Amino acid sequence: ISYYVGLMKININLPSVKVKNGAPMSIICHADISKSADFQLQHNFTIFKDGKLVFMTVSNKDDARYEVPMARSSDTGEYECTVEAGGKTKSSNSLHVWVTGMTKPILTAEKKEVLEGEVVKLRCELPEEVPPLYFYFRKIKMNSTPKEKYVFEAYKNYSEVEFSVEEGDNILQFDCFGKRHVQREFDTSEHSNKTLVTVREPFIKPALSVRPSHNITEGDRIQLECSTVVARMRDIEIILQKNKTILKSVRDEKVLKYSTVATLEDSGEYLCKVEQGRASKSTKVNVVVSELFPKPTLSASMNKLDENRELTLSCSISSFQKANFSVLRRNSNGDVLLETSRNLTMRVSVNDTGSYICKAEVKGIVKESKPVRINVYVSALNPSPWPSINYKHPSFLPSHGMSTVTLWSVICNHFSVIPLLAPVSKPTLSVVNGLPEVVLGKPLQLICRSARGTPPITFKFYKGNVTKEIVINDTYATFLDENVGQNGKKGYKCDARNNHSSGVKTSNILNVTVVGNFKKKMVVRFHVTVKAYNTRIKATISTIQHVIIKVISNSANICFLCAFSVVPIRNASLGSVPYGEVEEGSETAFLCSVKEGSWPIHFRIFRKADRDVLVFEQSEHADRVMWRKVTMSRQDTGTYYCMASNRANVDVKSHPITINGKLTFMVSCMLHHHNS
């Protein structure tokens, strides 16, 4: 007997692989088998969905049919069939079947009637659907957008949520729908039945009243009353607050009352809130309090004065006269009453130093002025009334450069006896670099000093008669003039003053000469007679130029080389002989030179360390200087550099060089022998 199991295929009885949810579905497996006409052969048909057995039958026919009366989304998947006949097996290709649509969900609510502040518990179920599933719940109010929540359920075909019932919720409707994910797409069910929930108020919105209702002025008594109607008197609270500050609260009562004497600070928005469980309702009202009178102002005849001077303090109210005034002195233990009238006049001592205020009272309303600071000082010009203090700590002795006035100040401050105010001395004004001249185009820095005077001291700088800068410091102040013009000499001055009653002290006028900044030298010839050989003469040939005249010949009639300039230093360099490596104990010469710059030139050579060490310093009427280090030691090795400067006040730094030390031949041999 011979037979052949050939082509196999699987079909469904619809033209499309998409099947509508709820429709009947048949999956047919067909086998193409060749055999003898009178030969009977049994066929074993097996149908799989997603690799799992769903149908199996034995037949002598070439077809097998798997019937699904109502297709559900759970029937979606990959189907294939297998036929076994006479020991031979064949399998079909797979066929994907997609059951579109989902069953209609069923929604139930735990309660049909709730109170504001409670919650509604809902359950949504998708019968005959297989998880994972997405559930969407909606809370529907009239004339508003529904609120939606969703829950993912990986193992259940139902889900539960809670919705809170808020103020203003009356009649609520709820529904739900489901979704499932199929091959990168979502299937969505139709919406469930709508469930109706009725909401009852536990209490009504509170009423908040104010008496008087308008024209409230400082000093008036105002009353606020908040009330509500409650369904059941249990765990209810009424709260009155202003600017988030609770003024009063009551529990298990229907009315709250609050009373106070009105002040300006009582203006604002008041909120009455009633709470019970999760329910909350509130009412707002705005209160405006008119000012009865403005805050008083305290003025002083002087804020800083010497001892035994007369001080007058006056308290006043703008556009208001009838008030009860008082003047007080601030104290950490409580304000001290000094006078119960508008004005206070007294002769002061240092003990009166402090802060003062005044108060005004009308109709029980008390208002306070801003504090006024009064400083009373003892004049240091005559320290004889002071008690004798025998204190010989060396840091306070006049031998350490301290004036008598300053010494008295230090002693008194040290013992915390009494505040002392020394008047400022006449200030001195000078150029920071010491010379009363500046290179054209370069900034000019001035310093103003007052040798005596209790800080703080206010310094004021003038250029001509124009105030340029005001600085408050201890004993000195600096001023940088970055706009130096070409109009010759400039007159600068400064003045100084502190809190002493002696007033302002002014320095002498400082005339600063502006000199030219020339890059090229100009040669001029003069015929003069001199008596000294090789004499240097400094002459002014104009108001803005200096000339250095150097004798070239010692004859009676000689030629002078005239070099106009204050030429800034350019290109400093440092070299050494020997260079780089020297023997210990040998001599080394360092040469610092500049490419350009007016004489004299100030040369400095430094050795780098934790803090750079100045090893050589010299001024020369030359463009170079040599420093001989007679004996080099191991401590002298390292990195060196030089700096050069002149009256142009520009420091120019060379590139560094490194000096390494090596042992002498004799020492090297001795060490080698020792190590051997």
Automatic annotation (TrEMBL):
GO terms for molecular function: transmembrane signaling receptor activity. This is Platelet endothelial cell adhesion molecule. Its main location: other. GO terms for biological process: cell surface receptor signaling pathway; cell-cell adhesion via plasma-membrane adhesion molecules; immune response. SMART domains: IG. It comes from Melopsittacus undulatus (Budgerigar). Residues 206-288, 294-373, 427-511, 568-658 form the Ig-like domain. One of its GO terms (cellular component) is external side of plasma membrane. It is a single-pass type I membrane protein. It is found in: Cell junction; Cell membrane; Membrane raft. PROSITE patterns: IG_LIKE. Keywords: Cell adhesion, Cell junction, Cell membrane, Disulfide bond, Glycoprotein, Immunoglobulin domain, Membrane, Phosphoprotein, Repeat, Signal, Transmembrane, Transmembrane helix. The keyword Cell membrane applies.
